[in-house]
Design brief:
The complex is a heterotrimer of chains A (203), B (153) and C (370). Chain A is built from 5 helices and 9 strands, in the order H-E-H-E-H-H-E-E-E-E-H-E-E-E. With 203 residues, chain A is α/β, with parallel strands linked by helices. In chain A, the strands form 2 sheets. Chain A has a 6-stranded mixed sheet. Chain A has a 3-stranded antiparallel sheet with strand order 6-5-9. Chain A starts with 14 loop residues before the first helix and ends with a strand. Chain B has one domain (3-56, 63-126). Chain B has a 3-stranded antiparallel sheet. In chain B, helix 1 (3-21) runs antiparallel to helix 3, helix 2 (24-34) crosses helix 3 (93-106) and helix 2 crosses helix 4. Chain C is an alpha+beta fold and 370 residues long. Chain C folds into 3 domains: 9-82; 96-120 and 148-326, no CATH class; 336-369. Chain C starts with 8 loop residues before the first helix and ends with a helix. Classes of the chains: A alpha/beta (203), B alpha+beta (153), C alpha+beta (370). At the B-C interface, helix 1, strand 1, strand 2, strand 3 and helix 4 of B face strand 1, strand 2, strand 3, helix 8 and strand 4 of C. Strand 1 of chain B pairs parallel with strand 2 of chain C. Chain B: One of its GO terms (biological process) is organic phosphonate metabolic process. Chain B: This is Phosphonate C-P lyase system protein PhnG. Chain B: InterPro entries: Phosphonate_metab_PhnG (IPR009609).
């Protein structure tokens, strides 16, 4: 199949500087968990993939990083060929094979322990999850503590998975193994590395 | 796949092979001689990266990775909207851009013949000549065994 | 405690400037151009491509000039450069049977299909230095001979017809070739990963190990089934095209080493094989690689592991000359703090030794000091 034009357009206009800017935002967000990093819309991916999540994938993924797509994205051929053309990342057959997982519908996503957790010797081999959320303010408030956070901080990402805080506790317990999460809204991102501890504010 | 489509694909691939094998200077020279249009929007690249070359154990067995090679690629769009691609060994970005435009032009019926006769045909002739010459030079080093008759009877 | 010491910046900058000057040498001598190196030092370029694990003649030539002809330094430069490039993918496996052959010889069959083609070889030269080359005289054009294109099957196919040779190395259908540029080495390793490591391995190291197998350090009685050198075409599957895109051709050297094998509980008597495949024209390297590949299959074939060349961890861990040179050469960099610690330790041990062995002398010393 010849690739459709819509899958060729919408990549980084300035690949080097755009990728560096996105990388910097992800790095700062990982270093300071819960901090919100604003990002211009560098990428214009086909729906249902959103701009920031798409830009993060363009910056981080390449031929060496198998990528897993959630069912919502799996069902969109335009997204698959857009990602294929711009990153060359192979699609992982199963979540544990994935270096990165792109999730358009976090509320319905599978359990965190379904992804690669890394090994005791190579904890870096776990899957990094990129969750597409509408905002970081309207969901259940999460109280974050841990490395990179002076005392505590709060974010409230919308559409988070069910029992997320409980799942995250288990993720903490697997340390140094465990997944890291990038939360991407339309124009910003925040991160939850595996070292961050989470409590709900309501509890 | 329909027969015509398969033939078109094989022909397109053969043209890409000819362009990839040919020196960038030759492509640029023939391009200006032929007066082919070179206006195109760059959708990606030209950018240089690596491919990992694979061999097979024992020559025909399971694949293994031998090492990397530099490759430059480009994707362009003509003013008409036609998209063309190129991947070629080496780091010649001008060559990759022109070859991607050639790929796009070839897919347009109005340009196909010019691309084939004025660009690809001379490149192909030069490649065939070089190949034949190398073959003949190697053939001159072929060992013709003969048996020395020794002793009586 | 870790003590960082700063200094020497001016010395380093001046040393690099001096290096640039010495590299250029006498300005009245014309500077080398890269195309001169590519054309006239082609086998040096090939070695840098093979061990630098990057097929790009001009870059290899640049590395050779920049390294002042120090091959391992040039290989290091190429390795460093390749880490800066993104990877577009893995090519389809090359077909050496379809090679545009420039040289092909077999030591096992005189009359094999396609014949013996000597090509541009050093074999049968007299190894006499040629003063005419120094004078830069004209060189005659090579002769040509008309001949039909003839199929040149790999020599292993001939023995395979009799069932007297093992098949090409197969692995399970769903086996994904390992990649030492992405995954850390783990022992024991599969043959595909070993071959990747050997293909970029140091020619001198592999040559010495190959030689050791011939001298009896690992039972081995090899024949060159075939060496072939020539160009093969590369193709890459890409998401945007419905067919594998042709990339152009690369020159490779392939060696099929054939070894007698008396059989074991696992396999009947037959010929086994070692395989060598390297970038460029380098049959010494391809042959050494094939000898090492065969020796490293000892466990697989039920042979006793008794020699260095059969020891996978030993061979593969030490075959990479960039790693080796990095670790050996780092010894010359400042170790002042390390050494101070060792010095203290040795002084203390010496004092204890003296106190134990020669108490009178210690007493004398103390008095003299006072």
């Amino acid at each position: 199949m010849e690739i459709a034009p819509q899958s060729i357009e919408g990549g980084f206009a300035d690949p080097v500087f755009n990728a560096q800017t996105v990388f910097r935002a992800v790095m700062d967000a990982m270093a300071r968990p819960g901090s919100v990093q604003a990002l211009p819309a560098f990428a214009r991916p086909p729906a249902p993939l959103a701009a920031t999540a798409g830009a993060v994938v363009l910056a981080l993924c390449d031929n060496d990083t198998p990528l897993w797509l959630d069912p919502a994205l799996q069902a969109a051929p335009a997204v698959k060929s857009w990602l294929g053309f711009h990153t060359g990342a192979p699609l992982a057959n199963t979540p544990p094979d994935a270096h990165f997982a792109l999730i358009a519908n976090p509320a319905e996503m599978m359990a965190l322990d379904g992804f690669s957790q890394g090994t005791q010797d190579y904890p870096d081999r776990s899957t990094t999850l990129i969750l597409q959320v509408s905002d970081l303010a309207s969901g259940t408030p999460l109280l974050l503590k841990g490395p990179g956070i002076e005392t505590s901080t709060t974010i409230a990402p919308a559409q988070m998975p069910r029992h997320f805080v409980e799942q995250w506790k288990q993720n903490n317990q697997r340390f140094p193994r465990g997944v890291d999460i990038i939360l991407a809204t339309a124009d910003s991102l925040a991160c939850l590395p595996r070292t961050t501890r989470i409590k709900t504010m309501e509890a | 796949m329909r027969g015509q489509e398969a033939r078109d694909q094989a022909e397109r691939k053969a043209i890409m092979a000819t362009l990839a094998q040919s020196p960038g200077d030759d492509i640029a020279r023939l391009w200006s001689d032929a007066g082919l249009p070179s206006e195109a929007e760059l959708l990606r690249g030209p950018e240089t990266g690596l491919v990992t070359v694979r061999g097979r154990i024992g020559g025909g067995g399971a694949p293994f990775n031998v090492g990397e090679a530099t490759v430059t690629r480009a994707t362009v769009r003509l003013p008409s909207g036609q998209v063309g691609h190129c991947y070629t060994l080496g780091r010649d970005k001008q060559k990759a851009r022109l070859a991607a435009i050639a790929d796009a032009l070839w897919q347009e019926p109005v340009h196909r013949e010019a691309v084939e006769t004025r660009l690809v045909a001379p490149l192909r002739a030069a490649l065939v000549e070089a190949r034949d010459r190398r073959h003949a030079e190697t053939a001159a080093t072929k060992v013709d065994f003969f048996t020395m008759v020794r002793g009586e009877d | 405690m870790y003590v960082a010491v700063k200094g020497g910046e001016a010395a380093i900058a001046n040393a690099h400037r001096l290096l640039a000057d010495r590299r250029r040498g006498d300005r009245s001598v014309p500077a080398l151009r890269l195309d001169q190196i590519v054309e006239q030092l082609a086998l040096g370029v090939d070695r840098v491509m093979s061990e630098g694990s990057l097929y790009d003649r001009e870059l290899a030539a640049l590395a050779i000039v920049q390294a002042r002809g120090d091959m391992i330094e040039a290989i290091f430069l190429v390795r460093a450069y390749r880490t800066t490039l993104p990877r577009f993918g893995y090519t389809k496996a090359i077909d050496t049977g379809a090679m545009l052959v420039e040289r092909r010889v077999s030591a096992t069959y005189k009359d094999l299909p396609g014949g013996q083609l000597l090509g541009p070889t050093f074999d049968y030269t007299h190894r006499l230095l040629d003063p005419e080359l120094a004078a830069g005289g004209d060189v005659a054009e090579p002769l040509q001979r008309e001949s039909e294109a003839e199929a040149m099957p790999r020599v292993s196919a001939i023995l395979a017809r009799e069932g007297l040779i093992e098949p090409d190395g197969e692995m399970s259908q769903d086996h994904i070739p390992g990649d030492i540029t992405r995954e850390p080495l783990e022992f024991p390793m599969a043959r595909d990963i070993r071959l990747q490591a050997l293909s970029r391995g140091d020619e001198g190291f592999l040559l010495a190990l190959g030689y050791s197998t011939q001298r009896g350090y690992a039972r081995n009685h090899p024949f060159v089934g075939e060496v072939r050198i020539g160009e093969v075409e590369l193709e890459l599957d890409v998401p945007e095209l419905p067919f594998a895109v042709p990339l152009g051709s690369v020159r490779v050297t392939e060696c099929q080493m054939v070894n007698q094998f008396k059989g074991s509980a696992k396999a009947p008597p037959q010929f086994t094989r070692g395989y060598g495949l390297v970038f460029g024209q380098s049959e010494r390297k391809a042959m050494a690689m094939a000898l090492c590949d065969r020796a490293l299959r000892a466990s697989e074939l039920g042979e006793d592991v008794v020699a260095a060349a059969q020891d996978e961890e030993f061979v593969i861990s030490h075959s990479d000359n960039v790693q080796a040179t990095g670790f050996v050469e780092h010894l010359k960099l400042p170790h002042y703090v390390d050494f101070q610690a060792e010095l203290d330790l040795v002084r203390r041990m010496r004092a204890e030794y003296d106190a134990r062995e020669n108490p009178a002398k210690v007493e004398e010393k103390r008095e003299a000091a006072e």
